[in-house]
Amino acid sequence: MKPPLVVKCPTCRIPVIWDSEHIYRPFCSERCRLIDLGQWESESYVVPVADPLDQNTDPGPE
């Protein structure tokens, strides 16, 4: 039998066992899950995206 997978809570870094008994995984608790959700909601976290309109790759008419 393999040992359980253990990950660190993204918010507080406490080890969390990754199994069906830990309903907030990868977070250790609902509190840490809500803190993370709040960070996304307040746009403290962002996913970088390259906007094709910002990149002037079209040389245009010469």
Q: How would you characterize this protein structure?
A:
- The protein is of the alpha+beta class.
- It has a domain at 6-41: 2-Layer Sandwich (Erythroid Transcription Factor GATA-1, Chain A).
- It is 19% helix and 10% strand.
- It has one helix spanning 30-41; strands at residues 6-8, 15-17.
- Strands 1-2 form a two-stranded antiparallel ribbon.
- The longest helix is centred in the middle third of the chain and has 12 residues, at 30-41.
- The N and C termini lie far apart (69 Å).
- The mean pLDDT is 86.
CATH superfamily of the domain at 6-41: Erythroid Transcription Factor GATA-1, subunit A
- Number of H/I helices: 1
| Percentage of β-strand residues | 5-15%
User: SS-based structural class?
Assistant: alpha+beta
Number of strands: 2
Low-confidence regions: none
Shape: elongated
Fraction of residues in helices? Answer: 10-25%
Q: What order do the strands of the largest sheet run in, or round the barrel if closed?
A: 1-2
List the helices and strands in order: EEH
Look at the structure and give the CATH class of the domain at 6-41.
Alpha Beta
